[in-house]
Specification:
Length: 239
């Protein structure tokens, strides 16, 4: 005899950390709502399968490692193992996208290209995430500061408060298409565009293995859904 009612399958919750880093995570302070590539991928993952429920958990770029250690989340997207995660128990996925760091300066700034990293110039540069951007600068060539948001870094250059700002290409290029007037005030430093890969990082003890996550991401790619999400933010898949 068949039961009249069947209980719904209990999904395994996977908490996914993220911090304000457009276009990957975008925080609207006025509404305290989050959007961006990460949130779109989580929706696609939830629609793809019926084993796990992926739920976004907000953190900050400064405290994301500590939050992970406190087990506030077990998965984070668009990270790199070398950005302070080596000593934590994580597995890294196949690359999701490739991004670049760009060095911006004011159009009226006549800097010395050949001696850009020489300490005698004492140029100032503002970074959004010193953890991975600092490695692209010489130890003595710049006076380094940080800012709270990528746009704030750009504003500091526009106001001539710093000589340079390092920003991610995935944010800056769409911004200049939305606000082409910026190009009359800003210019890119020639021969400076280091590339880095972005991945998903999963806790070793997670019920979701890195192998299973790679399978899900590959399925999203084969269906065209992943490309659709990336093209929305003018990003290209890494492979």
């Amino acid at each position: 005899m068949c039961p009249l009612f069947t209980s719904a399958k209990q999904l395994i919750e996977i908490k996914v950390g993220g911090y304000d880093y457009p276009p990957y995570v975008i925080h609207d302070i006025s509404t305290n709502r989050y959007s961006g590539v990460t949130l779109d991928i989580l929706r696609a993952l939830n629609h793809l399968q019926d084993e796990y429920s992926f739920r976004f958990v907000s953190t900050s770029r400064h405290h994301r490692h500590a939050a992970f250690s406190r087990q506030r989340f077990e998965l984070i997207l668009f990270e790199n193992l070398e950005w302070g995660w080596q000593q934590l128990n994580v597995q890294q996925s196949l690359p999701l996208v490739l991004d670049r760091n760009l060095l911006l300066t004011h159009q009226q700034h006549d800097y010395e290209q050949d001696g850009l990293f020489m300490p005698e110039h004492n140029y100032s540069v503002v970074l959004f995430d010193e953890l991975h951007q600092r490695e692209h600068l010489s130890d003595e060539g710049f006076a380094v500061s940080t800012c709270s948001h990528v746009m704030n870094c750009i504003k500091m250059v526009l106001k001539r408060r710093v000589d340079f700002a390092m920003v991610n290409e995935s944010y800056y290029l769409p911004l200049t298409r939305q606000r082409p007037s910026l190009l009359s005030s800003l210019k890119l430093v020639d021969n400076f565009s280091p590339v880095y890969s972005l991945h998903a990082l999963v806790r070793d003890e997670s019920s979701l293995t890195i192998e299973q996550l790679n399978v899900y991401l590959q399925q999203l790619s084969l269906s065209g859904e992943l490309q659709k999400i990336m093209s929305k933010y003018q990003l290209a898949l890494a492979n």
